[in-house]
Amino acid sequence: MTETFQTLLIDRPRDHVLRVTLNRVEVSNAFNTAMARELYQVFEGLALDADGARVVVLTGAGERAFCAGGDLKERLGMEDDAWFAQHLVYERMVRAVLGCPVPVIGAINGAAYGGGCELVAALDFVYAADHARFAQTEVKIGIIPGAGGTQTLARAVGEKRAKEIILTGRVFTADDAQRWGLVNEVCSSAALMGRVLEVAGEIAGNAPIAVRQARQAIHKGLQMGLADGLAFEIEAYNRTVPTRDRREGVEAFNARRAPKFTGQ
Question: Is 17 helix (H, G, I), strand (E, B) or coil?
Answer without folding.
Answer: strand
